[in-house]
Amino acid sequence: MQFGGYDPAGPYWSVTSILDSGGNHGTIPGIILGSGQTSGVVPPGTVISISTDNNQTLLYSYTTTAADSPIVAGNVPMNTGVMPFALGPVYISKNPSGVGTVVFDYPPPPQRGRAHPGLYSQGP
């Protein structure tokens, strides 16, 4: 996860995350913001980029607004909230057994900072 735009060579935070389509805007562990903020919401205008665990493939990216900013919480896993589902098709499979697969099936980005096709597998 990166803030301020995706850079495969730049610093990133490796966080435990939950893919959640429940309709909320998700949560971000406050410690990774680097601002000392521990509550409230991520400031509107913040670019959030989600990539694979090695930061080499951008899965999706978006700029927060007052209407869709994730909640800043304590030391909790990141919760995606509805945003990846709002950006385009997301396919979830229980295969391979015990691991599962999530596919973010977005069109190629016309510019930096837009959603990007990617594949992310997460075990139990």
Automatic annotation (TrEMBL):
Q: What is this protein called?
A: PE cleavage protein A C-terminal domain-containing protein
The record lists the organism as Mycobacterium szulgai
The record ties this protein, via InterPro entries, to: PecA_C, Peptidase_aspartic_dom_sf
Q: Report the residue ranges that make up the PE cleavage protein A C-terminal domain in this protein.
A: 11-102
| Positions of the UniProt region annotated as Disordered | 103-124
Q: Which domain of life is it from?
A: Bacteria
Alphabetized GO MF terms: aspartic-type endopeptidase activity
